[in-house]
Design goal:
Length: 492
């Protein structure tokens, strides 16, 4: 479309021959503007390592899509509250959110670069007339609007917007990755806290039993029915049990402070709220894990790596565009006159549109070097994406294997605890029948508590493995409904 169709022929136009000839130049420029140099992004490379199912999945793992808020399956309201607080108040989330706002502003800046730059101007010039020695100085008054627009003929600006858009999506995925790690870290700290509190209570009970055992053994030695060696053995047992108490108390304090900081508070701020010992939340019997392809679409670190690959691909085209000429349009609509009184007369109306061509075909290899650098960066991003895929698969498979192994350990220790409780119960029956001594009952009770401590620790380890599994699946952030993740990797 000729650019001068909006301005009818006038005396002012007749004085601007360059403007009149733009009617031929405009369609040519706009036609060339459809070109976009550089490689088009066709998605991430295929991943032959991706299978249809996980190799280490357990028989009772379901292929259903796992829930984003996986911690609700642990059925612990206090844990739900802590994770919700951390996701809102933790400084690391605020840092990632600020970075996302920063790159979004960069994207807006790149998009604005595709549009004309406009402004108003007013000027007064006074200069000596070089054409006449008799006349006085020459005055020039000018008032109007000016604009400049670099026509994106070869798509360099469009590639810059494409790169900035992919970078924004990568930053958004990084924010989700922070949320995934944070929710898992809060859950891990909470499980360790409850485990330490439970084991500390059991240890204190064991200390009481060993103390009673020691008193009874000392009494028997006084009566001549026990030796110094028997007393020394019980004393050693009591000392070892007491030695377990201090590290557990330190671990309780450590996890309290860790949870406080993760929740955005100062160390000690949660001591009162979490002082009462409660059981360790147990992992559900059946866990949905989905499939590896869904994992790669869900994990924020994989999505971020894929978006960075798209960004680096667009930067190649942005640099290739520097090989070609740049065309800019400079425009001015206003009035110019040698007298303020005639400034707004029709004869003073001054339109001007001027195309400007810029081209540096001989830059001694600078552009070629930048293009080579961009292609190398793109190859690096592709390798990083492939490594992110392998790391994600390894993480998920390893977490599944550890969870399965720990579940077997819990089963074995549950049987050991049941056996210890049966021994204790039978010893009490013998005590009531007069065929066992109080010392035997206390010893059986001590062994039962030791078995309970081991079982408690195994249950805690199983829940921690459950938390690690959910993190490896890329869970812990909520995808907005009816909105697909941008640029997700399509496993093949």
């Amino acid at each position: 479309m000729p650019l001068n169709r909006h301005f009818p022929s006038s005396r002012a136009n007749q004085g601007a021959p360059g403007y009149a000839r733009l009617g031929f130049f405009g369609p040519l420029v706009l036609g060339l503007a459809a070109c976009t140099v550089g490689p088009d992004y066709k998605g991430p490379p295929a991943s032959p390592q991706v299978k249809t199912t996980f190799q280490r999945a357990l028989p009772d793992n379901t292929a259903a899509e796992p829930p984003a808020q996986w911690w609700t399956a642990l059925k612990d309201p206090m844990l739900d509250r802590l994770i919700d607080t951390a996701l809102k108040a933790n400084p690391s989330v605020a840092v990632a959110q600020a970075r996302l706002r920063e790159v979004r502003a960069t994207l807006s800046q790149q998009r604005a670069g595709e549009l004309p730059t406009t402004g108003g101007s007013a000027a007064y010039l006074r200069l000596k007339n070089p054409l006449s020695s008799s006349s006085g100085d020459l005055n020039l008054y000018s008032l109007g609007f000016d604009a400049s627009w670099e026509i994106d003929i070869f798509g360099g600006a469009r590639r810059a917007v494409e790169a900035a858009s992919a970078g924004t999506q990568a930053s958004a995925a990084s924010l989700q990755d922070v949320r995934v790690s944070l929710s898992a870290e809060v859950a891990d700290a909470y499980v360790q806290l409850r485990d330490a509190q439970q084991r500390r209570a059991l240890t204190r009970r064991n200390i009481e039993i060993d103390t009673q055992l020691l008193r009874l053994m000392q009494a028997r030695r006084g009566g001549g029915t026990a030796s110094d060696l028997d007393v020394a053995r019980i004393t050693n047992q009591l000392d070892n049990t007491r030695a377990d108490l201090a590290p557990l108390t330190a671990l309780v304090t450590e996890q309290l402070d860790r949870l406080a900081v993760l929740s955005g508070g100062a160390p000690g701020s949660l001591d009162q709220m979490l002082a009462d010992a409660t059981p360790v939340p147990t992992a559900p019997a059946s866990i949905p894990v989905g499939d590896p392809a869904a994992l790669l679409r869900r994990r924020p670190d994989v999505v971020s790596a894929e978006r960075k690959l798209a960004q680096s691909n667009a930067i190649i085209g942005q640099n290739v565009a520097a090989y070609f000429p740049k065309v800019s349009l400079l425009g001015f609509l206003g009035f110019a006159s040698t007298s303020p009184g005639t400034l707004f007369e029709s004869g003073s109306f001054t339109p001007l549109i001027a195309p400007v061509l810029q081209w540096t075909p001989f830059d001694f290899g600078r552009t070629r070097a930048k293009v080579s650098q961009a292609r190398a960066a793109r190859d690096e991003a592709e390798a990083s994406y492939q490594q992110a895929v392998l790391n994600a698969l390894e993480d998920a498979e390893g977490s599944l294997a550890r969870f399965g192994g720990q579940r077997d350990t819990v089963t074995d220790l549950a049987r050991a605890l049941a056996s210890a409780e049966r021994v204790y119960a039978l010893t009490e029956v013998r005590l009531q029948g007069g065929t066992a001594a109080t010392l035997d009952v206390l010893d059986a009770d001590s062994r039962r508590i030791q078995a309970e401590v081991a079982y408690q620790q195994a249950v805690s380890g199983l829940t921690q493995d459950y938390v690690a599994l959910q993190k490896s699946l890329g869970l812990g952030w909520q995808q907005p409904p009816a909105q697909a993740a941008p640029g997700v990797a399509q496993a093949q």
